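hi support,

uploading two proteins for the ticket. first:
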Amino acid sequence: MPLNVLEVTIFAMVLSGGDPVVCTRQDGTEEMILCSNSQVATLDEDRITFKDGTAVVKFPDGTLVFSNGIRSHWGSAGWVQFSNKISIRRNPDGTFKTSGGLLCRSLSGEKATCQKS
């Protein structure tokens, strides 16, 4: 299964503490995504692994656990809240809004961004 560029972009934004980021699939591969914050994500069996060694595991109930200790849980009004104080929710148009004012969206099947809206 190929990596989802938007999902990786959101994870890279969470790992950066909420900083803007753009991520692009590496040419010729479905299993490597490069991000503007120097993160590189690869698919490792059932987890996404970043070049700094942080792995992200998604459980069947939707809970996310990062190997560096960041965890997620469903908060009020449809927000996913991360233990590092970042919250994100899906908008009706398929984009995602963060508590820090970023808008995360796909630019194409190969590129996604989390930028100030």
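and the second one:
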Amino acid sequence: MNVVVYLSGEIHTDWREQIVAGIDKEKLPIDVLAPVTDHPASDDVGVSILGEEDKPFWKDHKGGKINAIRTRTMIEKADVVVVRFGEKYKQWNAAFDAGYAAALRKPLITLHDPDLTHPLKEVDAAAMAVAQSPEQVVSILKYVTTKD
């Protein structure tokens, strides 16, 4: 039986690809789920499906709700949730995903550079592991999905 892992968080680096490559290299019994990482497509999903809006608030409102359907569904299906916090932008959505996963009592792994330890102390307190590299995440997933 495969373990389902949801990869949440920043979309500006290739951390997801590194984790998937590590899972493939180790031949781990893991299925990976992820949000839409094409930023414009994610931002515009609401208006592209439900119609244009005159005000940015309503455009974001539509898009945010449709993205939340995807995100919540995938977090609920996941056995493990990995949330990456990057340096470039404040990822409020990533923090929300981590909180949602914690509220559902999903095993949570946070992934971020050491200089974000203090700002993320509350999020990290909810995590079962705090990793600093995609390789560490793969090692954790290998440990929890193999017999040896």
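thanks. also noticed: DSSP finds six helices and five strands in the chain.
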